Every structure is written in structure tokens, then in C-alpha cells.
Amino acid sequence: MACDEWKRSQIGSIRTIGTLLVLPITGYISDRWGRRVALTINAFNTGWIGLVRSFVNSYEWFLALEVLESSVGAGAYSSCYILVTELVGPKYRVIAGATISTLFALGQVILGFIAWGVPAWRPLTQVLYAPQLLVVSYFWILSESVRWLMSKGRYTESEQILKKVAKTNKTVLSDKSLEALRATAEAEKNTVKPKEPWLVVLVFRSRVILSRCFVSPIWWITNTLVYYGMNINSVNMSGNGYLNYVAVAAIEIPGYWTAILLLDRVGRKPVLICAYWLCAACQFSFAFMPEGNEGIQLALYLFGKYCIAIVMTSVYVYTAELYPTKYRHNLFAFSSMVGRLGSITAPLTPALASEVWAPFPSVLFGSFALLSGLLIFTTPETLGTKLPDTFEDAEQLGKQKATTCALVSLCCQFVGNMAGSVRGSGVGSPRMELDTLLVQELGQFGRFQLRTFLLAAVLVMLVAWSNLEYIFTTARISTRCLISECEDEPMEFAPSWLVNAVPPGSTEGSFDNCERFGNTSASRRQFDSICPSQLFDQDTRLPCDTFVYENTDSVVFDYGLACDEWRRSLIGTVTTFGTLTALPITGYVSDRWGRRVALTINAFNTAWLGLTRYWADTYLGFVLSQFAEATFGCGLYSMTELVGPDYRVAVGAALKTCFALGQVTLGMLAWAVPNWRNLTLVIYTPQLLTILYYWIISESVRWYMSKGRFDESEALLKKVAKVNRRQLSDKSVEALRHTAEEKLRNDLKVEGSSGEPWLVVQVFRHKPILVRCLVSPVWWVTTTFIYYGLSLNAVNMSGNKYLNYIAVAAVEIPGFWTAYYLMGTIGRKPVLTGAFWLCAVCQLVYIFLPQGMYAAALLVYLIAKFAIAMVATSVYVYTAELYPTKYRHSLFAFSSMIGRIGSMLAPLTPAFGAQWFAELPFVMFGSLALVSGALIFLTPETLDTTLPDTFEQADRLGQLDQENKT
């Protein structure tokens, strides 16, 4: 079948048609003789028919056996799914389903490895199908479905199984419950059901349900087309086909569980729309990605598969919730059955690629995903709604929720006003914290906070530009020695004769950047060729006298830094050291003249000092400019202190996302404007406009109150209330002022007394706190060292350095949000330990990957950056929760300040690699991540614990929570 792509692809389509035929066959056997019988027959048929196929010698017989196997054996998965989930409680049913889907993905991973180990198709078929003959024993191992036994009136057998379940689970099953269950089943069986119109008539009578019956099958067609199409086409990508398939299968697993985490938090529609559209974006990007970017293509492909895995889980739940109870199974099955058209078409996509247009499958997948995401808007949100029982309930789906929410809002507003009246009538001095005022009256995240956040987002992206632009302005340039005896004008960087004059490099096809071969006594005039090998003594190596540069884009050319890796890397370290010295300067300005003044000065200093670097003509002037900009222009205060406590962590994660987006746009700008001087102009000229922030943003309310400027703070709070369209009561403002004045008086008393020991003395008195003060800085050093180190070294990888950097920056975003969701679900310690160790594993894998596997190397690199991004978010929260309230800021700042050592050392890692061995940076990253993950075990879990107020409470952190639970 060489060059007969249609004939080859037809096998997959015929097989999928067989899986469509198996549904009624398996359904009949399942209803007639039971789920266990159907499962065993399907699984055993798969085994023996698959084995027979290994002996056929014609295409026709192979095709016939594919159809036969899928027609009488492909129902094993659905039978197994039903049998498992029927006895699982409703609370765990979705998780059980996701687990089965995960096992299906693991099966695909194992299949990829087996196919890699046994590439010949006949032995592979025998290896895969021979063990499946053992599933005939399932008839005696598995129990029959309790629901099926009851539906057939076989109550005695069903009761025996239920008693066996109770015995195995070590629970007590009462006879009354069994009798009630039997009575319910008998009553349902004996109920005379009134005659109703056919389902198709009922659907056509309801315009709303009819619309859903049109759009939901399109979702299912899209799912199966994209899901199976990506599996099939993965083996046709460049690189190792087996590894590609394994990676594409394995990425499904986090997709399934991401859906489980998000569906009940953000809703069904947002998850489905985002997953569909992200998948579409990946498909279109993959289709039009220039050749030679295999790593980026694989990353896009994997992310697209991850998104469609999210859809696969979500659409199961969402489709079922759109239809009334009585007809839910039938209408769900209709969507699923029509969806098989996608899986029938998917095997033909390789043929479409070869016959029509190579990117055609990806464009097809993206178009369907884009359309399906749009169609989600035509259906209602079902999160938090009651499942509809009738067609009328289904038609009102979503509308009732909106009405209920409006009523609840009115009731809450009324109750809140009443509560305010009661509080106002209390006796004694009222107290009011700013957070309480935000929750009760101003709004935790209204229009005012949104406007401030958007201003902060722009500034954070600009900070990313200025903090990391040295990665490109000081980027390494490929160089070689000037071979004066061979060079002709115009000079080529890599002429054909270069292999005779310059030693080979560390990678295939490259050459040494810093050395050349010595000369022999022969003269060029003796030979007809331009620069023959006889001119050079390949046993002698000499350092370059003069260099030829591949381009003139970075300061390496202007300042002659070729092969001077230490001086080149030192620029980044000096920049980071400047950010460390900026902290006390910015802190003084901020406390003396206000947050707004500090922010405006820092942002404007960044702009004009960055611009002056454009005219720097010496290495020393460039370094001093970098240091001055970092020292006087890198400090920023939090512009989000008026965000309510419920949104503060999310806003923090959103700002981190903006920082990552700033890195992504920086990579794009550097790609578009590669020359370092022009790039400096592009990056810093717009930042001169930040001086306008002095008039655009408002001063900090907390700073006003800390300085006793209550009139100005109250005016600002009234402005917030007006913008947010909320009512701010005079009593609340008075209570807030009273609380602030009381704090000022207490602070003066504390300053006047000297009875309390220094903080360092108190830390040494409390062993648990001392341990935390020793280990938490290690976490921060590790985090900053790896985070910035991975960003810096991304531009030195093989492939397109700009795309590498963009991908490494973009992958932070899902890392930040994954940490945000997981910290509140499984705890701080599992997230941090898991992320540190995942990062460590990726570093070790990256070191030992064979050269030439660029796609695999980039994938491992991206996972490591994803993991350290999770750590960067989690360690902020966890470190703060370990210390008592009064000293939390000081001890947190201590860990953060020590952590700057990591960011100062990170720019030197390319020099470490060049000086000793190339993998040294990744050995350091992996070792530190491994140690930091282990150090997490020395500190307590803080999830769902009360933040400690005193050293004694902090000592017992974790223990108090356990005692309260007990």
C-alpha cells in the first residue's frame, strides 16, 4: 500500500464503523443476558479475532477481521464503564468515570511503548491480543449488575450481591432497607405507564430542546474527530513516532482531571468554550507554524490534545444535564451515536493531508473546535441548577437560576441593611477594618478595582520588559575565528571550506566558536581549491585572534564579548543586584512620600535610564546603566490593596499572568526588532508615559491612614463607592477612622516601650520558627534560581531562540493557575513537593536526553518551567502562612531577600556551562529542586488552618488544627 494513503486510512474508518454496529449488538446481549456476559463475550471476542488477524495474508481478510472484531468485541469499554459506575455512589461517580478515562489513556501510553519495543505488526498483534484471552475468567471473577438483576425480577440474587458488597466494605446492611429496595423495584415494574407521543414528536414540539439536539451532536462530532484525529496523526509528525504517540496519549490524563477540578468551580460553559477555543488556537498555530520549529509544534500539539481531553470529560457531564430525566439517556445516546461520525472520519485525515494539503487536518480540527465553542453560547449554564425532570423544566433551564439569584440578591441586600441598622445601634466604640468595609459596602472587586487592576497589569508587563530585556540585548552570538588566509569579500559566516579550518562543535553540523586549527607549511597557491584541508594541522588548536560574527544584534558584537562568557553573563547579575539595592530606596520613598509617588518615580526612572543605554558605547557604561536602572527604577508597590480578601489571591495570580504575558510580548518584540539598540528604543520609549500614572491612579488608603490623613482617605473611599455604585455609610467611615486612630496610638506606645526582645532573639527561642527561617530561604533561592535560569537558558537551546523563549514564558500561565486551584484542593505541601520534584525530574531527564531530540528536550524544558511556575505562586502563600501575624511581613521579607541570591546567580549559569560542562546549570537546578522538595517535609500543612497570631500558635501550627478536628 505504498503511496496508497486512502487504502491504508480506510482500515481505521472501517474499524470505527464496526464500533458503531457493536452498540445495538452489545446492548441486546447486555439487556438479555446481563452486563457480565456482555463484557466477557466482547473482551474474549476481541482477543481471539485479533490473534487470527496476525495470520492473514491479504488486505481483504485483514479488513474483514477488523470489522468483525470491532462489531462483536468493541463493546467491552462501555460494558466495563457501566458495570463499574453502577455500584459507585453518586458522590464518586464522576471521579470513577475520570479514573476509567485515565486508565484508557495509560493503556494508550503502554501501547506506544509496546509498539516501540515490538515494531513488526504480526508479533505486535500477538503480544497485544494473546493476554486478552484470559479475560474469559472475568465471568467468574466479576459480579453481575445489581440494577440489571432487579430489572429482571431476580431479587434474591441482587440481595446476595448487596450483602456481599456490605460484607466486603465492612458495613451493615439492614433487612428493612433490602425489603424497601425490593418493594420500590416491584412497584416501578408494575406501574402502568400512560401512552405518550414518540420522543421525536416531543422534541419537535419544543424549540429549545430541538436546538440542543442539533448543537450537542456537533460537539460530539468535534470531540471524536479531533481526539482520534490527533492520536492518528501524532505518529506522522517529525521525530520519534512512538514517543510522539506516548506523549499525546499521556497528556490526556491531566486534561481529564483539570476538567474535574474546573467544572464545579467556574461552570460548564466557560470550561467548554475555553477548551474548544484554546484547542482551535493550537490547531491553527500548528498548521501555519514555519518548518524547523519541531519543538514548538509538539508543544502546540500536546496542548491541543490536553484541551480536547478537557472537552471529552466536560461534554459528558454537560450534555446529560441539558435534557429531562425521562429521556436523558435516549437524547444523550443520540448525541453520542451521531458523534461517531467524527471517529469514522478521523482515520481518513492522513489521506486528506497527503492528497489535498498537509496542514488540512489541523485546519479541519481547528474549524470544528471554533464552531463548537461558539455553539456553547446557544445553551444555558447548568452549574448549580437542579436537573430537569420534564421538557418544561429543561426549557426553563438557566432562566430559573437567574430569577432565583436576583431574589437572593434582594433578600441579602435587605438582610444586610437590617444588620447594618442593628450594628449601628450598638453601644460602645465601633470598630471597622478596611477588609470588612470592602466586603460589606464598597465591593471586593468592582469597577474601581478593575480599573486599578488594568493599570497595574500594563505596568507589570512593562516591568517584565525592563527586568528581562537583557536576555536579548546581551544574547550570545555564534562566532568563529577569522581565517585570514582563506577569507574573501564579501565574507560568509559558514563557507563550505570552514570544516577544514575550524574544529567541530558539540552538536552535529556545528563548529567551535572560539578556536581554529593551526597552519601547516603548505601554501594556498599550491592548491586549486579555495581553502583545502592540507593548509591546516588538525592536531593543533589555537584561540581566535579576530572573530567573525553571525550577526550584530546584541552587545556581544559591539563590546567584543565573543568567547568571554563571564563578562557577558555578569551583566544580568549586576542587573539583578540592582533590584536588590532598590528595595530599601523604594521602601523609604514609599513610606515618606506615598505609594503613588514611589511608583511614578520608579516607572519613569526605568524609562529614561533605559533609553540612555541606547547611546552607551562602552561595556562599563552599559553595565553602569543597567545597575542604575535596576536600582532606581525597579521597585513597585501593590496596586491591589483595595481588592477584597476573597479575590486577593486570584488577582495576585492574574498579575503573575500579566508578568508572563509581558515576557511573551518581549520575546515577540525581540524577534521583530533583533538589534539591541533599536529594541531598547522600542521597549523604553512607551514607558515615558508612565509619568501620567501620578494623575491616573489613586494613593493608597492604608498609607493615608498610617499617616493620619483621614480626610483624604475618606474622600478616596467615597470615590471608590461612587465608581462601584455602592453606598458607603457615615457610620462605617467613622468606625474605620476610629480603628485606624487606635492603631496609631498603639504603635506609638510600642515605639515608646523597650520591653519586647528583638525579633532575632525571639526566633532563636522558638525551634520550629528557627527551622522555618532556615528552610524557607532555601525554597526562595531555588525558586528564583530555576525560574530565571530556565528563562535565560531558553535562548541558548537549539531551534528558534525567540520561539523557545516565548514558549517557556507562556507555559508559566497555566502553572500559576494550576497552583491557584490545587493549593485549596489538596494542600500547600503536596503542591510544593510535587512541583519541586517534578521540576527536578525534568532537569535530570533533560540532561540525559540524546542530542538531536529537540522536540523532546523542549517538551521536558517546558514541563520544568510549568512546575517552577507552580512553585513561584505556592511559595508566596505558604511562606506567609508559616509565621505569626505581627512578624509575618518581616520574616517573609527575609526569605524573599535571601531568595534574590538565586536570581543573581541565574544569569551566570550559561558561563558555568561554558566553563565546566554544558549540563552543569541543569544539574544545579535539579539538585536544588530535589533538596527543596525534601525540605517541605520539615514544615506543617497550612490548608484550612487559622493563621497564627503569636509565636506559640505558630509553633503548634498543624497540631492545633488536628486537635480541633479531634
Automatic annotation (TrEMBL):
<dbReference type="InterPro" id="IPR005828">
    <property type="entry name" value="MFS_sugar_transport-like"/>
</dbReference>
<feature type="transmembrane region" description="Helical">
    <location>
        <begin position="769"/>
        <end position="790"/>
    </location>
</feature>
<feature type="transmembrane region" description="Helical">
    <location>
        <begin position="356"/>
        <end position="377"/>
    </location>
</feature>
<dbReference type="GO" id="GO:0016020">
    <property type="term" value="C:membrane"/>
</dbReference>
<feature type="domain" description="Major facilitator superfamily (MFS) profile">
    <location>
        <begin position="1"/>
        <end position="384"/>
    </location>
</feature>
<keyword id="KW-0812">Transmembrane</keyword>
<feature type="transmembrane region" description="Helical">
    <location>
        <begin position="270"/>
        <end position="289"/>
    </location>
</feature>
<feature type="transmembrane region" description="Helical">
    <location>
        <begin position="920"/>
        <end position="938"/>
    </location>
</feature>
<feature type="transmembrane region" description="Helical">
    <location>
        <begin position="453"/>
        <end position="472"/>
    </location>
</feature>
<feature type="transmembrane region" description="Helical">
    <location>
        <begin position="242"/>
        <end position="263"/>
    </location>
</feature>
<keyword id="KW-1133">Transmembrane helix</keyword>
<feature type="transmembrane region" description="Helical">
    <location>
        <begin position="124"/>
        <end position="142"/>
    </location>
</feature>
<dbReference type="InterPro" id="IPR005829">
    <property type="entry name" value="Sugar_transporter_CS"/>
</dbReference>
<feature type="transmembrane region" description="Helical">
    <location>
        <begin position="890"/>
        <end position="908"/>
    </location>
</feature>
<protein>
    <submittedName>
        <fullName>SFRICE_027222</fullName>
    </submittedName>
</protein>
<dbReference type="InterPro" id="IPR036259">
    <property type="entry name" value="MFS_trans_sf"/>
</dbReference>
<dbReference type="GO" id="GO:0022857">
    <property type="term" value="F:transmembrane transporter activity"/>
</dbReference>
<keyword id="KW-0472">Membrane</keyword>
<dbReference type="Pfam" id="PF00083">
    <property type="entry name" value="Sugar_tr"/>
</dbReference>
<feature type="transmembrane region" description="Helical">
    <location>
        <begin position="679"/>
        <end position="697"/>
    </location>
</feature>
<dbReference type="InterPro" id="IPR020846">
    <property type="entry name" value="MFS_dom"/>
</dbReference>
<feature type="transmembrane region" description="Helical">
    <location>
        <begin position="830"/>
        <end position="849"/>
    </location>
</feature>
<feature type="transmembrane region" description="Helical">
    <location>
        <begin position="198"/>
        <end position="222"/>
    </location>
</feature>
<feature type="transmembrane region" description="Helical">
    <location>
        <begin position="96"/>
        <end position="118"/>
    </location>
</feature>
<feature type="transmembrane region" description="Helical">
    <location>
        <begin position="802"/>
        <end position="823"/>
    </location>
</feature>
<feature type="transmembrane region" description="Helical">
    <location>
        <begin position="295"/>
        <end position="319"/>
    </location>
</feature>
<feature type="transmembrane region" description="Helical">
    <location>
        <begin position="855"/>
        <end position="878"/>
    </location>
</feature>
<feature type="transmembrane region" description="Helical">
    <location>
        <begin position="649"/>
        <end position="673"/>
    </location>
</feature>
